[in-house]
Design brief:
The chain has 331 residues and is α/β, with parallel strands linked by helices. It is 32% helix and 24% strand. Helix 8 links the parallel strand 7 and strand 8. The two termini are 30 Å apart. It binds adenosine-5'-diphosphate (ADP) and magnesium ion (MG).
Length: 331
């Protein structure tokens, strides 16, 4: 990493492990995640359901509750290791320097407050001296920025009076209210129809670019990553198995799992062609054996894959964990 890149580093996650304690013992939902996010950078965290994306996102900002626990690793946000912060300091950071957008906007929206009341509270909690008129002005601006028509009148609405797409826009507006440096978004458009999803992706990208906001966008959909992100981190069984720029990783995946994901994308097939499915299923994380967790599904597996988990290989800025990485572009 060059010095310029280093100075722009906003989030530096090293060796993050999150366990869930069960009667059969502890098992790792996140198993040694390394991830770096620079200022203003949009990172897509992609993988199948159950791969540990949400647990990773929640672990970064101290939102893991028992029986879950972050058991190892560091999460440096600028000069602070978030894993060492007390709950009150974490609360102060969240909704201010770091914001989270959840898949279900009702995790953000308070049913007993109007949109205006909740937004005003989100500002005054962190900026108690902000004049009342300015608070209202900022709420209206924030709603307008995420494409909400007639924002003044929306301030009087309760969440239950809004459509799903409108609720998610309000949740995004709340996340962006205090101009955070980092937003973690956990599949916020998955439940929305494709047209609204496309609009929200476009608006989020524009807002992040304008304000130099870093964004970690969690999704199971590589198509979303292709639209939105600068970098992509591909997650499998609690680990990041491939990382690089979206352009490089999508054009020339090095990990067989990434290629499988790409080939199973609808846009990749010619009309009439059968879609390639990745063989097998993601392993239950409780049944993890030694060796590469992708091995049972991998077309390139050899004996060593069952004996030893692959280390991270570096190729310039690209990283991948595979004993037998792909060399050729798929054309
Ligand atoms: N509160 C919890 N208690 C026990 N296991 C959990 C909990 N939350 C998530 N998990 C498990 O952790 C694994 C990763 O989950 P998750 O991060 O939600 O996957 P993803 O977001 O990639 O779909 C899954 O096997 C899931 O069942
Ligand atoms: Mg999830």
């Amino acid at each position: 990493m060059t010095q310029a890149e280093h100075s722009s580093l906003l989030l530096d996650v090293k060796g993050l492990k999150t366990a869930f304690h069960t009667e059969e013992g502890a098992w790792l939902a996140v198993d040694g995640v390394d991830l770096q996010v620079r200022r203003g950078e949009i990172v897509g965290l992609v993988g199948e359901s159950g791969s540990g994306k949400s647990v990773t996102g929640f672990s970064l900002i101290g939102l893991i509750d028992p029986p879950g626990e972050v058991v190892e690793g560091t999460v440096m946000f600028k000069d602070t290791d978030l894993t060492t912060l007390d709950p009150e300091s974490l609360r102060r950071l969240r909704g201010n320097r770091i914001a989270m957008i959840f898949q279900d906007p009702l995790m953000t929206l308070n049913p007993v407050l109007t949109v205006g009341e909740q937004m005003a509270e989100a500002i005054t909690t962190h900026y108690p001296d902000e004049p009342r008129a300015r608070v209202t002005e900022r709420c209206v601006e924030a709603l307008a920025r995420v494409g909400i028509p007639a924002p003044e009148s929306r301030l009087k609405n309760y969440a239950h009076e809004l459509s799903g797409g409108m609720r998610q826009r309000v949740a995004i507006a709340i996340a962006m209210l205090n101009d955070p440096e980092l937003i973690i978004a956990d599949e916020p458009t998955t439940a929305l129809d494709v047209t609204i999803q496309a609009q929200i992706l476009f608006e989020m990208q524009k807002l992040c670019r304008e304000r130099n906001t870093a964004l970690i966008w969690i999704t199971h959909d590589l198509g979303v990553v292709a639209e939105l992100a600068d970098k992509v981190a591909v997650m499998y069984a609690g680990r990041i198995v491939e990382y690089g720029t979206v352009a490089e990783v999508l054009a020339e995946p090095r990990h067989p799992y990434t290629r499988g994901l790409l080939e199973s994308m609808p846009g990749m097939a010619q009309p009439g062609e059968r879609l390639t499915q990745i063989e097998g299923m993601a392993p239950p994380l409780t049944a993890r054996e030694s060796g590469c967790p992708f091995r049972p599904r991998c077309p390139r597996r050899q004996d060593v894959c069952g004996q030893q988990a692959p280390d991270v290989s570096h190729d310039g800025d690209r990283k991948f964990r595979c004993h037998f990485p792909l060399e050729e572009a798929i054309v």
